Amino acid sequence: MKIAIFHELPEGGAKYATNKIGSLLKSFGHTVDLYYVADKEDDSGSLDFNSVYFYCFKPKIWKGSNSRTRIYKDTLELYKIYKLDRVIARDLDSKHYDFVLVNASQFIESPFILRFLKTRKFFYAHDPNYRIIYEKILDIPKSLNIIKFHYEKLNRLLRKKLDRDNLSKADLILTNSKFAKDVINRTYHLKSEVAYLGVNTNLFVPGEINKELDILFVGTFEPVDGYGILSKAIELIQNKPRVFAVPGKDDKTYDIEEMIDLYQKSRMVVCLAVNEPFGLVPLEAMACGIPVIAVNEGGYKETVVDGKTGFLIKRDASSLAEKIQKLLSDTKLSEQMGKAGREEVLKKWTWEKRGRELEKILLSHL
Questions:
Q1: Terminus-to-terminus CA distance in the chain, angstroms?
Q2: Per-residue model confidence as pLDDT tens digits over 177-215
Q3: Which of 115, 174, 208, 296 is most buried, judged by most C-beta within 10 A?
Q4: Domain map of the chain by residue range?
Q5: How far, in Å, CA of 37 to CA of 134, rounded?
Q6: For residue range 291-302, what is the model confidence (pLDDT) as tens digits?
Q7: Which fold has domain 2-198+351-364?
């Protein structure tokens, strides 16, 4: 197959997964080109494609105070990315690909390029919906003054319509979990197919490092990532465990090698994000032989095997505190769960296995 991959993603797990999918499809013998929009070229050396096409777009930075910048980003900046996507679509169509695997946009979830492409386009939904619009936990703050409140409401209505119109143009929607598939069906009334992501079991491996950390938490301190529950759980534990949060308050960026080191140093990994569509963190932890405690919702239910590779818990501090104490006090159980997690990943979640499943789905739609 001759395949193009497109994205407007920021740094993070979705971008990493997108690049990995491309390199896998190339390793299977397909021609795979990358088209991406960013404020600078990716110089990480990790882009493994036949050809790479970079389109520069420098968005203005808004930190929540300058209203003029905010209005610009919601109007002129959005229109500029709309026009750029139209240009990229023409470039893509001229090269006669079998299909374009379109990924999300940091500017408007389902990107505008979906409405312009004449080539078959398959959209990979890393998030099952435009979360700031549909998630209750991200509702407009009641504390906003009346002008800002109504501006935010109007802006979200506009973005909701644009997102829905863009997504409706996809010939196929792929999701990263059964949970995400269900959300897309309920939110957009569109069908999709599950194409799970995987983990690099040659990089993420158990280590012989002493356990310097009791708990590793990967996520922001925003309510949507659930750190508040962990804080309350720690208050309930008499002998305070050693907790490390990534990125933490210093917002330091950790590369893959640093993350592997943190996993290997930890006794357990705690995953508390609200309705996480899939979540690579549990799989990475399990690949490193580390038990996982996760809330029993979202994509976590599809990766963490309750009582075997970790625990799935209710979203409350007492349940979390109980399981933390259990793993800290029962070293044998912790080791058993760590080994079981590694075995589970090797059996079901390698990138090779997941890549072959994706290839099969793609071929069936040509």
A1: 10
A2: 999 999 999 999 999 999 999 999 999 999 977 899 999
A3: 174
A4: 2-198+351-364, 213-348
A5: 25
A6: 999 999 999 999
A7: Rossmann fold (3.40.50)
Q: Could you give the CA distance from residue 94 to residue 179 in angstroms, rounded to a whole number?
A: 36
Radius of gyration, CA atoms only, the chain: 21
Task: Give me the count of residues in the chain.
Answer: 366
CA 286 – CA 300 distance, rounded (Å): 12
The yes-or-no answer to whether 2-198+351-364 and 213-348 have a common fold is yes
Cα dihedral: 188, 8, 180, 74 (round 10): -50
84-122 residue pLDDT tens: 999 999 999 999 999 999 999 999 999 999 999 999 999
**Which CATH superfamily groups domain 213-348?**
Glycogen Phosphorylase B; (3.40.50.2000)
> Quick check: helix, strand or coil at residue 280?
helix
d(CA 217, CA 270): 5
- Token pair 């896998």 is found at 24
CB atoms within 10 A of CB 330: 12
Best-predicted range by mean pLDDT among 244-248, 250-254, 299-303?
A: 299-303
**Cis amide prior to 111 (ω within 30 degrees):** no
